[in-house]
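Below is a filled-in request sheet from our internal design queue. Each sheet records the structural input a requester submitted and the sequence that came back. We keep these sheets so that new team members can see what a complete request looks like end to end.

REQUESTER: design group, bay 2
PRIORITY: normal
MODE: inverse folding
CHAIN LENGTH: 397
BACKBONE (tokenized):
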């Protein structure tokens, strides 16, 4: 999907009330303290740009899953406090989303100031994308800015519905996501190497299919590799298998051949006795995985061949770990891939959300990657070539 959307820089915001949909869905401890404020920090460039350009800023977000009811456990109060610290002036929190408090604060917000609405998911209308709710939310502002990539694949009132009523553009976070990922898919620096891992084939069906249209090499690792090996007629012992996806896997193997895409599957694995961190394991060739063992990571030969494939690549898109990286003994494959990408000179590296992001961060390679997507589900749908409602609704350039 190629998006060419207007951003905050393409619209006059001075003196205008601007509703920004942010992703303030931050992790909290049992006392409600924010344990990691990276999402808040990531939203600051867009917010500051609007403040500097004398907009009247109205912020909104969801937090957790209050299931359409007011539940103060999911209040955005800690977010308002964090924003106050980061922005250096008091960010007032409305006690509702579209009620009297929101309307009164939104009508009194001054140029260069910001207020925050309560959790949009306190209303069940939010996730239902109820038009009346979206209209009321939109009525608080003159312009809508979506900067929450993590929810851009959802057609909710605050992520898409509001755009039907007021001019809608993207913030810097979404702009970066669609520019970098869009280019990687539509006009990549070649060779384009796609690396897919993680637990299940079924989660990545659309992604594999779409990337086979675009990439030069596709590398398959993680639990899903075993369904591919089985499809090739190999015995995989007790490794993860999605029996009903073997014919799909075979179809993808054949599609790769037809398209001239190099598909790399594991040739050896770490085969463990049980699914446990301290399980004994052996290095097994994929032609002879013992009946009573399960592959929990790629083996040294496979690491070498995958590393070789990354070497010399122009663009790498990576989604999903190569093994059960949560267990130290079975994290070597994932670390080796992260290491190879991080140290590849001149490569455009895109880490597409979820567990591969966690792995890259854990290894301290975040700064060495071109782009780490801020949305797991949204980046998968983007790679799948699906339309993201939270982006499709924005004004075209
Ligand atoms: P996903 O959310 O689809 O990216 O999958 C990530 C999960 O896949 C992680 O929790 C990994 O532990 C798991 N995983 C990776 N490789 C394997 C494997 N060989 N067997 C079982 N689970 C795996």
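RETURNED SEQUENCE:
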């Amino acid at each position: 999907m190629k998006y060419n959307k207007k951003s905050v820089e393409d619209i006059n915001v001075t003196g205008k009330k601007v509703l920004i949909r942010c992703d303030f869905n931050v992790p909290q401890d049992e006392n409600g303290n924010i344990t990691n404020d990276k999402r808040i920090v990531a939203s600051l460039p867009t917010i500051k740009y609007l403040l500097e350009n004398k907009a009247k800023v109205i912020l909104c977000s969801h937090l957790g899953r209050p299931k359409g009811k007011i539940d103060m456990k999911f209040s955005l109060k800690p977010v308002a406090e964090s924003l106050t610290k980061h922005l250096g002036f008091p960010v007032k929190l409305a006690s509702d989303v579209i009620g009297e408090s929101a309307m009164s604060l939104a009508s009194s917000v001054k140029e260069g100031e910001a207020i925050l609405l309560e959790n949009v998911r306190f209303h069940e209308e939010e996730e239902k994308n109820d038009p009346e709710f979206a209209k009321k939310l939109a009525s608080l502002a003159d312009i809508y800015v979506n900067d929450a990539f993590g929810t851009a694949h959802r057609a909710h009132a605050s992520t898409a519905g509001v755009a039907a009523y007021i001019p809608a553009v993207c913030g810097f976070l979404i702009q970066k996501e669609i520019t970098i990922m869009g280019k990687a898919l539509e006009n990549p620096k070649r060779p384009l190497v796609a690396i897919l891992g993680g637990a299940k084939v079924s989660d990545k069906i659309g992604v594999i299919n779409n990337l086979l249209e675009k990439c030069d090499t596709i590398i398959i690792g993680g639990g899903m590799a075993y369904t591919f090996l089985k499809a090739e007629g190999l015995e995989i012992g007790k490794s993860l298998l999605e029996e009903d996806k073997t014919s799909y896997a075979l179809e993808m193997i054949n599609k790769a051949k037809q398209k001239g895409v190099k598909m790399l599957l594991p040739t050896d694995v770490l085969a463990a006795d049980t699914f446990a961190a301290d399980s004994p394991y052996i290095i097994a060739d994929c032609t002879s995985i013992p009946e009573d063992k399960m592959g929990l990571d790629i083996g040294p030969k496979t690491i070498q061949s995958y590393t070789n494939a990354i070497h010399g690549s122009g663009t790498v898109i990576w989604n999903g770990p190569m093994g059960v990286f949560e267990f130290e003994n079975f994290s070597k494959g994932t670390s080796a891939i992260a290491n190879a990408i991080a140290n590849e000179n001149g490569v455009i590296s895109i880490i597409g959300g979820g567990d591969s992001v966690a792995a890259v961060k854990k290894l301290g390679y975040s700064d060495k990657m071109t782009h780490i997507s801020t949305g797991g589900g949204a980046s998968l749908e983007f790679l799948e070539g699906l339309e993201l409602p939270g982006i499709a609704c924005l004004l075209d350039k």
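SHEET NOTES:
- The chain has a mean pLDDT of 96.
- Residues 198-200, 203, 222-223, 240, 295-296, 320-321, 323-324, 326, 354-355 surround adenosine monophosphate (CB under 6 Å).
FILED BY: M.R.
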